[in-house]
Amino acid sequence: MYHLQLKLAALLAWAAAVACEGVVAPVPEARGPGDCPPGGVNYAQLAAKLSKAAQIYQPGSSAFNAAVARWSNLSIPVANVVVVPSTENDIVQTVKFANQNSLPFLTTNGVHGSITTLGAMTHGIEILMSQLNRIAIASDGKTATIGGGVMSKNLTDALWAAGKQTVTGTCECVSYLGPGLGGGHGWLQGRYGLISDQFVSMNVVLANGSLITIDQNSRLSWAMKGAGHNFGIVTSTTSKIYDIQHPNYAMATLIFSGDQVEAVYRVANEQWHSTGKTMPVNLINWSYWFFDPTIDPQKPVIAMYLIQEGVSAVDAAYTQPFLDLGPIINQAVSGTYRDLAAWTGISLDAPPCQKTGNANPRFPIYLKSYNTTAQRLVYNLFAQATTNASTPFSNALFMFEGYPQQGVKAISDDATAFAYRADNLLVAPLLSYKPTGPALDEVAFKLGKQMRQILYEGSGQTSLNTYVNYAYGDETPLAWYGSDAWRQTRLHALKGDFDPTGKFSFYGPIA
Ligand SMILES: Cc1cc2nc3c(=O)[nH]c(=O)nc-3n(C[C@H](O)[C@H](O)[C@H](O)COP(=O)(O)OP(=O)(O)OC[C@H]3O[C@@H](n4cnc5c(N)ncnc54)[C@H](O)[C@@H]3O)c2cc1C
């Protein structure tokens, strides 16, 4: 067991050995055996203030290496030490300690955050939330209090066992709060709204180390629902939960040749995204583009997923217009809500839940409907980039996520910091590649931007509407949080009041 659990008995010996750990990273030449450079940090002082179950992982330990490994290996945050709190007070103490020692700190959870702004953290403390994983359902069955380190799948499973559910991210290995703080899309959003729309109250450790409870009447509540990464560490949230109404689901997978891009998305528009139309509340339509030479050795395919709630087979009314186009593959499955992640390739054992060392940048844009001309242009670019003989991007995935929006649009546009309730489709190329250095990173960046630009120009929109939780990191705060002046003014005012020195400014910083 390499975990260094700091206990009083070991404290003195350990303190001598690690008194210099966590020194300001950019001065390695100042370091040597037994040599404490200016700014050396004595983590033993922090350890003495933490609870018995809290842990501090040092560099060089396997626990440290496992904790700092991330899903996307591009512009990653760098830490000198990882603190694993087990109580709210551990977080309070860690933040105060970091402040006293002028150390940056970053909350980490499911480590699927991939925005490149995280790379601005070049040293300091990572606060890994994994031990704050309690889930407690209230006696009235209407809310659950969810620890700040709970994973999406754990929440789904715990609620399911009690006949309950709530909106979580779809991927089993992302945390509950990581997606939620940026808004949070999930299978149930058509019924109940975004993940963040479920927040009733929260315990939050602020930048100065104070622990507060906020509810719907708190000024900060608005910001935590869409721009929450900028304001504090959420130790727990109390969120709305619901009786399971429709446990069963069915999915139709229809795989098309890339030749049919225009036809496929024309049908999607005709069914759900043209004037007066909307996604039915019980239907989700995702599609992926990917190159699978076993299906088509020449070019990427289009996989359409029609996921319907409460049925054992997807209604023909939804599938037939696509079947009329003649898919290469037509498959159907049925099961329950808990099968959805496996069906769509985002369950715990699926590739997106593994840390492979790959860089995984995405270039997201929200759209209202598909522009079939733009779809063709961007498909051609994607095909060229994924199929040429020497490409590093053969595993790239283009994602088109069409969730039902009723629950999202039922909440007024200005009610929370999430700015994009009016949009219908979350679209992003995911340019997964094995990193080899800045030159390839630059190729990926240019390619991703070019793809997004095609979609942006085809959308007719006047602002780049970007989901902060998928963002590459080159976008502006206007793109992440909305270009309306009032949104920016309100966010800046809150930032000034709650985090004036920008302690929480690594993930999609407001300023
Ligand atoms: C495979 C995959 C599937 C995804 N599916 C969805 C989806 O269905 N819906 C959706 O909306 N998004 C989804 N996302 C995007 C997801 O919202 C972001 O990647 C998110 O940042 C992941 O959170 P995390 O805790 O896993 O990652 P982390 O990197 O650990 O956290 C990201 C950031 O969240 C903040 N944070 C996390 N926990 C806390 C906390 N307790 N208190 C304060 N700040 C905190 C920190 O700023 C941190 O830097 C998906 C991403 C991937 C890679």
**In the CATH classification, which architecture of the largest domain applies?**
3-Layer(aba) Sandwich
Taken as a percent bin, the fraction of beta residues is 15-25%
The helix-and-strand class reads: alpha+beta
**Chain-averaged pLDDT:** 92
Shape: globular
Return the CATH topology of the largest domain. Answer: Vanillyl-alcohol Oxidase, Chain A, domain 3
Strand order of the largest sheet: 15-12-14-13-17-18-16
Bound small molecules, deduplicated: flavin-adenine dinucleotide
Proportion of residues in helical segments = 25-40%
Number of strands: 18
Radius of gyration: 23 Å
- Tally of alpha and pi helices: 16
Given as residue ranges, the uncertain stretches (5+ residues, pLDDT < 50) are: 1-39
Domain FAD-binding PCMH-type: 75-244
Cofactor: FAD
Organism: Venustampulla echinocandica
Family: Belongs to the oxygen-dependent FAD-linked oxidoreductase family.
Descriptive notes:
Helix content is 29%, strand content 19%. It is an alpha+beta fold and 511 residues long. The protein is globular. Mean pLDDT is 92; it is low at 1-39. It binds flavin-adenine dinucleotide. Flavin-adenine dinucleotide binds next to β3, α6 and β10. Flavin-adenine dinucleotide is lined by residues 71, 106-114, 129, 148, 169-171, 174-175, 177-179, 181-182, 184-186, 229, 233-234, 346, 352, 469-470, 507.
Descriptive key words:
511 residues; alpha+beta; Uridine Diphospho-n-acetylenolpyruvylglucosamine Reductase, domain 2; Uridine Diphospho-n-acetylenolpyruvylglucosamine Reductase, domain 3; Vanillyl-alcohol Oxidase, Chain A, domain 3; 3 domains; 5-stranded antiparallel beta sheet; 16 helices; 18 strands; globular; binds flavin-adenine dinucleotide
